[in-house]
User: Fold these one by one.
Assistant:
Number 1:
Amino acid sequence: MLINGKQMHIHCTKGDVGRYVILPGDPGRCADIAALLDNPVHIASNREYTVYTGELLGEKVSVCSTGIGGPSTAIAVEELVECGADTLIRVGTSGGIDDAVRGGHVVVATGAVRQEGTTREYLPIEYPAVADFTVVSALRQACETLGYTTHVGVIQSKDSFYGEIRPEAVPVEGELKAKWEAWKRAGVLTSEMECAALMVVSACLRVRCGAVLNVLWNADAEEEPTVTPECAQRGVRAAVEAVKLLIQQDQK
């Protein structure tokens, strides 16, 4: 939806963003990610959306924050695609579900449990939230090349951050705990709040997407969150390297 010639929320238009876009949640991280691009330029900032555009391997690449949760992520995806984006990679944080997924690890998501509300306004719940195979492959290769402890598989997307942290505080405690145990028994790797929306909206718009998640802690283990600058940069560096791989593949 255009207002004064620009997208209503991200305040961009065609030509402002590249076909490849890295999507952090926090607008405060955009400048640091953009610094890894060549010739980055600040394009716009509005609400939770901050946009930079630069280059990698001669191709235009952008960074756009999505805010927290599915609704704001869906808006970013819709408007970025209107501006010409066709390859979207989320970089975010998460809390491990599977016992093997610990703070400091990274997760490449192949799909997401749709335990949120946004995607139900796009497709029936029977439709899976899945990432693009080429993006997943590029992210996995990048993580392994960088030497990160990497897990690849299904993650969970939810709407309530504190429903994970302290489910006993809400009346539906039993439901939340039962679902958490089900995801754990099924091998779901980690929990976050945006991937399902990214994947389902991308599917509806016929564009590629993927996600790489920094794990801060395991929700069921007695460990402090791992929030060192080096750990926080792992997903970012993996996303940048994956974009380079995708550019090389696409140029062929």
Number 2:
Amino acid sequence: METKDYLNAFYQDCDEEGRLLTRHGKVEYITTMKYVDKYLQPGMRILEIGAATGRYSHALARRGYEVDAVELLEHNIEQFKQKTIPGEKITIRQGNAVDLSAFTDNSYDITLLLGPMYHLFTQEDKLKALSEAIRVTKKGGIVFVAYCMGDASILSYGFRRGKIHEIIEKCMIDPETFDTFSNPWDIFELHRREDIERLRSHFQVEPLHFVATDGYACHIQDLLQEMDEETYQVFVKYHLAVCERVDMLGYSNHTLDVFRK
């Protein structure tokens, strides 16, 4: 099977839209949009690469921005189209993050790469996806790149769900350093901050933010669901106050690397 086949099988059964609507998923969404909002200006053009069902693309289009979206999976594209409402300045096309040849250089003010790096397993593909995202972004434009983090997965899946011995036996982690190793059938590629910084170092860009987009929320999902709304809002406020602290990054399931071209 090819990577696309594994992803198709996974996302046919995965309610990604629903995940972002849970309380822990909302933390990730609120945090990502907060950082996008820092750089948005009227009239900007936005490209979302790996747009999935369009949670971010539609939100931005409904605020009046011109949004183009690229998505690999037909299942997600169909859901994306169903969510489009009259008046949105939005397009969706099928495409791959490692080949954006349909798009011209220096075209977008904001480029979102919020999903593809989860599912790219070779250095070559990761660098190509970053290169393409940077190429289509205007000079001075902002690129947002999301990653899945290894240590948070070891804690939540390995220890919290009791799978640590299984993933050691499957050689998915180094039992001494706890570095992670993934294949396409594992669906998600996992990183540490130093891995992400090495990838970014191949390009002449200006780092702006490195953000723990869901922070500790992924480890207390049940508790968040049980909180009263006032307490939940205090947690969100706390999270936003500490989400760029270096000592919080490894606990986050997802991170956001923000840089200027």
Number 3:
Amino acid sequence: MERDMIKDKAEYLMALISNFAKNHGLNVFQSYRYVKRYGGIELVDEHYEIMHTLSFAEALDMLVNYLKRQGGKIE
């Protein structure tokens, strides 16, 4: 994978994690651990090409719904 794609994915994932933290009253580290625990990092890695074409709000909703389906309890 080319270096720019890796950088883009990492920045996008960090933006999702930061917004998830803000929306759920968590710090960024807590948010990262939660997203990682329920497979969100793999989701973004695997489906980045699709997710980044959505509005950011839609992508964040998609992530939250996925985490819930994987057993996450944060609403």
Number 4:
Amino acid sequence: MRTFWNFNGGIKHIDSWQSGCWVQVTCPVDDDVRFLQDELGMPDYFLMDVADTDERARYDLDEGWLMIILRIPHLKSVSSRSPYTTIPLGIVIKDDKIITICHQETRMMLDFVNHQMRRAEGFTDAADLVFRIFLSASVWYLKYLKQVNSMIDKAKRDLDKHIDNKDLVNLSRLQDSLTYFGTSIRGNESLLSKLKFRLPVDELDAELIEDVNIEMNQARETTAIYINILSSTMDTYANIINNNMNTVMRLLTSLNMIIMFPTLITSMFGMNLINGMESWVGGFPIAIVLCILCTYLSLIWFRHKKWL
């Protein structure tokens, strides 16, 4: 699906392509690909690079075309293997052609368009559009990081009540998401430092770049903090699980040793051998008393050693 936006003096939707408009392509189909290649002349391998979900943040030049690939945050599903991940967003520029391509419909881009409509100022040029998308991506990284932190706190509260495999698996999924975030944010920072010398930057763009750097630095540091917290939490609960397992094994071993003494006594008197107590009426009560006495003494001993 492709959408055309006129951004002079504000964001306005237009029905067809015009020189200098912004072409937003989301989840491109064959018709969108033909439009980009045949009518706008975009190199075909640009589309293939943007379609690669593992493509790193970078830029490329080809016969006047500038392709920028930015890693943006994306929420797939809370129940998925990695609920929060990052996907590539392609920004392609040449003369009066400004195109953004994304193979997923993201909340970030929907919010970006709505925010620019409320802002009612539009963009001064392509560089202004690029840096504002960078700023929006940084803000959405921070939004998703707050959600991740809330999910971590909830999982920790549940684990404090009862250690469950489901909660541990959820923490592991969030750890994967934070790893994706950290890697993508560092790639975006490196890309931004290179674009400052590639795109025409005026005084307003310089201030905008400074704001982007501040937001990206905060997102990177926040991600690093949450990764450390999550790693420490996982290690802590792993130690708790091991300690609980040791406690259970110690208890079972202690009970086994307590039961061993009466078992030994009854086994000795139950052997098919002459021991002088076969025909005595008090033989059985004596065996029972010995079993009870040994069990009681061993129980006291294990309680004294705090093994029970």
